[in-house]
TrEMBL record:
Organism listed in the record: Sulfurifustis variabilis
Region (Disordered): 1-21
InterPro entries per the UniProt record, alphabetical: Bact_HTH_transcr_reg, Chorismate_lyase_/UTRA_dom_sf, Tscrpt_reg_HTH_GntR, UTRA, WH-like_DNA-bd_sf, WH_DNA-bd_sf
Keywords, alphabetical: DNA-binding, Transcription, Transcription regulation
Protein name: GntR family transcriptional regulator
Length: 259
C-alpha cells in the first residue's frame, strides 16, 4: 500500500477475504483511524497526531490523510480547531443539542432541556428491543424513563433501553450523578461513543401514564420518535422512544450545510 489519494487497494471483507471491488485509499485510512478511536487509543477530547505524522504512520500521502480527516470531521467524529489541531469529538451539551436534540420552540429556538429521571430498572429484552439492539431475546437490559422540560413545561417523555453488558456497573446513582449528557456518560465512563442515530417518526395518541406525565389528556395526539443510536462499525448502543407534546413545540431537522 503506497502514496497518493487516488490510489486504490483491495478491500478486505469482514471474514478476512479479498473483496471483488476496490475502495479509495482514504477509506482504508478512515478504517484505520476508526480502529484507534474504537480501541480508546485516542480518547474523546484528545488531539490526534498531525497530518504529516499520520501520513508517515499509515504510509500514505498527506493529501490522503487530509481527505480521510475531512470526512470524519463532516461526520462529527473529529473536530478541527484552528491553530490547535484536530480533536476527537466530545458529547458536550452543545454537541448534543445541535446534533441529537431536534425539539424547538414554535419560533424555532432550540434550548437544552431540564431532565427528570422517572424510572431506572433492570429487565430482559423483549423481541423488539433485542432486534434493534442486536441482542438475544431475554438478554439483560437497563430501562430508563426521563421527562424533559423546556421552560418548566413537560414536553418529551423518553423511554430508553440499553444492553446491561455494554455498561457494566451502571447504577441509578451513577446515572443521576452524571456531569453531562447521557451520551457523555456512555463516552467518558464506558468508552462508548455515539456517532450517529437513525430516527423514525410517527403520530400516536397518549395513553394514561404518558398523558399524565406530559400534562395532556389520554387520546391526545403526540409525536413519537424512535431512535437507535450507533457507535463505530454500526454497533447499536441505545434504543430511545420519545413521545413529544407538540402543542407549543416542533421537530426541526436541518439538512445540508449553509454556504
Amino acid at each position: 500500500m503506497t502514496g497518493g489519494s487516488g490510489r486504490r487497494y483491495n478491500a478486505r471483507t469482514p471474514h478476512g477475504g479479498s473483496a471483488a471491488v476496490q475502495s479509495p485509499l482514504y477509506r482504508h485510512v478512515i478504517s484505520q483511524i476508526t480502529q484507534k478511536l474504537e480501541s480508546g487509543e485516542w480518547r474523546s477530547g484528545e488531539t490526534i497526531p498531525s497530518e504529516p505524522r499520520l501520513a508517515q504512520q499509515f504510509h500514505v500521502s498527506v493529501g490522503t490523510i487530509r481527505k480521510a480527516i475531512d470526512e470524519l470531521v463532516a461526520g462529527q467524529i473529529l473536530v478541527r480547531h484552528q491553530g490547535r489541531g484536530t480533536f476527537v469529538s466530545t458529547h458536550s451539551e452543545d454537541h448534543y443539542r445541535y446534533h441529537f436534540f431536534h425539539i424547538v420552540d414554535a419560533d424555532g429556538t432550540k434550548r437544552f432541556p431540564a431532565v427528570e429521571l422517572h424510572a431506572f430498572r433492570r429487565g430482559r429484552a423483549d423481541g423488539s428491543e433485542a432486534a434493534k439492539l442486536g441482542l438475544k431475546r431475554g438478554a439483560p437490559v437497563i430501562r430508563v424513563v426521563n421527562l424533559l422540560r423546556l421552560d418548566d413545561d413537560p414536553v418529551v417523555l423518553d423511554r430508553i433501553t440499553i444492553a446491561a453488558q455494554q455498561f457494566p456497573g451502571l447504577t441509578r446513582a451513577i446515572f443521576v450523578a452524571r456531569p453531562g449528557t447521557i451520551y457523555h456518560l456512555y463516552q467518558e465512563r464506558y468508552g462508548v461513543s455515539v456517532i450517529r442515530a437513525v430516527e423514525r417518526l410517527r403520530a400516536v395518541t397518549a395513553d394514561g401514564a404518558t398523558g399524565k406525565a406530559l400534562g395532556v389528556r389520554a387520546g391526545d395526539p403526540l409525536l413519537e420518535i424512535e431512535r437507535v443510536a450507533y457507535t463505530y462499525r454500526d454497533r447499536p448502543v441505545e434504543l430511545r422512544v420519545s413521545q413529544v407534546n407538540t402543542g407549543h413545540h416542533a421537530y426541526l431537522s436541518e439538512l445540508g450545510k449553509g454556504a
